[in-house]
Amino acid sequence: MDKFKIRGGQPLSGSVKISGAKNAALPILMASLLPSDKVMLSNVPDLHDVDTTLELLDCLGICHSSLNDNSVTIDPTTLNHFKAPYDLVKTMRASILVLGPLLAKTGKAEVSLPGGCAIGARPVNLHIEGLRKMGAHIDVENGYIKASVEGRLKGAEILLDTVSVTGTENLMMAAVLAEGETVIENAAREPEVIDLANFLNSLGANVRDAGCDTIHITGVEKLHGGEYSVMPDRIETGTFLVAALATGGSIRCENTDPASLDAVLKKLEEAGAEVEKGEDWITLKSQGRPKAVNIITAPHPAFPTDMQAQFCALNAIAEGTAGIRETIFENRFMHIPELRRMGANVESEGNTALCHGVEELTGAEVMCTDLRASASLVIAGLVATGETVVERIYHIDRGYEGIEKKLQGLGADIERVTA
Ligand SMILES: CC(=O)N[C@H]1[C@@H](OP(=O)(O)OP(=O)(O)OC[C@H]2O[C@@H](n3ccc(=O)[nH]c3=O)[C@H](O)[C@@H]2O)O[C@H](CO)[C@@H](O)[C@@H]1O
Ligand SMILES: C=C(OP(=O)(O)O)C(=O)O
Q1: Which residues partner with 309 through β-bridges?
Q2: Which bound ligand lies closest to the C-alpha atom of 164?
Q3: What does residue 235 show for φ and ψ, rounded to 5 degrees?
Q4: Is 127 in the pocket of ligand 1 (CB under 6 A)?
Q5: Per-residue confidence at 117, pLDDT binned at 50, 70, 90?
Q6: 23 lines ligand 1 (CB under 6 A)
Q7: In sequence order, what are the residues at sequence separation of 6 or more whose Cβ sits closer than 8 angstroms to the Cβ of residue 62?
Q8: pLDDT of the residue at 419
Q9: Can you give the pTM of this predicted structure?
Q10: Which residues fall within 8 angstroms of residue 87, CB to CB, at 6 or more apart?
Q11: Contact 251, 273 (CB under 8 A)
Q12: Are 342 and 364 spatial neighbours (Cβ–Cβ below 8 Å)?
């Protein structure tokens, strides 16, 4: 298993090119099975989760090119299977995103239940209930969601009990080929939901008001092929910005979308950073030791749960004390015991954590438990004195494209050790 060796203490400095967003690329790749002709996608990040998604498309018989220079061509006309097997789904929760498009396109889908994962139970009841409202017959048996529909799905009014990002996306993808109008209320407003809607509309779909809490979709009979470029990754951007501030550095993120990062940039400024932004870039200059900032995670446009662990690492070395409340996932503090191994003074109880900033973290051997926990450990390692060894970095490879190379380009002393 690969690990990172980090010798901390180097302020990050220079420019970094941000990759395409994992959480937009995955639904867009799944949605590429919907049209009746080829789709060419660019700015697709080279990530383990993207490989898994392409493997899932292979299982469905869908021909595609290999990912080359962050582009991939998908030919949905070869679709001839309808089962997403457990062996693949268990490695990536986002596999559930195949359910809506597959059912809409073929009238049949069998998708393994994704099950619980490190950060929480993460049920998919809203996906299932929404598709049932659209006329699907769904049984959950032997660990599989078995869905079918006679003819086309039917447009429906769907009120989501909880704001769900992939729930909204699954239902949106199903609705574009349904008969009539679908209204999704209490929809997720994340930028990746908008990117998916823009992609679908570029193929001839009729999705309106994505980014608002009520989305309207008028089904069409067919989608045509096309080309699309995936939006930049706001969480990767935020992770580099936090790393720069934590190390007392100064960086420029290029190829990014500042508008998708409002809540994060506000917190970075509150922590004492000088932030400037243009149409597709952000610069951050540290102004000395950061100040601890209170964080409450909530659905977009509030502070994203996917940035909580990174800010926890920042607070760990900041001046003062601040609280973190995680309202989205019930078990997303697994980085805290690892940060404590590096000398952090962070207490946690239930969904809250209290971070008392210390002046210095010290290198240690630490273990990744999930994607963003891994990012927080890398940030802590970049700040700590001495050597930090971050184990089980396969979690980070799920969602960060060449993170060690990008950090090396910013002057960090980090290397991948392949066992
Ligand atoms: C691939 C992808 O885009 N992943 C993102 C997506 O995950 P994901 O879409 O899985 O997260 P959701 O938005 O669905 O989860 C939000 C909350 O709703 C609950 N819930 C969800 C669905 C459901 O049917 N029933 C239910 O109760 C979840 O347990 C959680 O407490 O949004 C999360 C919240 O911004 C991010 O952390 C993930 O990075
Ligand atoms: C939780 C995340 O991803 P996923 O939903 O793919 O597990 C994440 O990107 O932080």
Answers
A1: none
A2: 1
A3: -75, -40
A4: yes
A5: confident
A6: yes
A7: 33, 74, 75, 76, 78, 79
A8: 80
A9: 0.98
A10: none
A11: no
A12: yes
Instruction: Label residue 222 exposed, middle or buried (CB < 10 Å: 0-12, 13-18, 19+).
Output: exposed
Q: Which of 59, 117, 355, 368 is catalytic?
A: 117
Residue type at 41 in one-letter notation? L
Q: Return d(Cα 185, Cα 163) in angstroms, integer.
A: 9
Contact 332, 309 (CB under 8 A): yes
How wide is the angle at C-alpha 234 spanned by C-alphas 231 and 237, nearest 5°? 120
The C-alpha atoms of residue 266 and residue 257 are separated, in whole angstroms, by 15
Instruction: For residue 15, give the H/E element and its range.
Output: strand 13-17
Residue whose Cα lies nearest atom 9 of ligand 2: it is 306
253 catalytic, yes or no? Answer: no
Answer for the pair 34, 176: CB distance below 8 angstroms, yes or no.
Answer: yes
Ramachandran angles phi, psi of 58, nearest 5°: -60, -45
Model confidence pLDDT, tens digit, residues 219-268: 999 999 999 999 999 999 999 999 999 999 999 999 999 999 999 999 99
In which region does residue 266 sit, left (phi positive, over 0), alpha (psi from -120 to 50) or beta (all else)? alpha
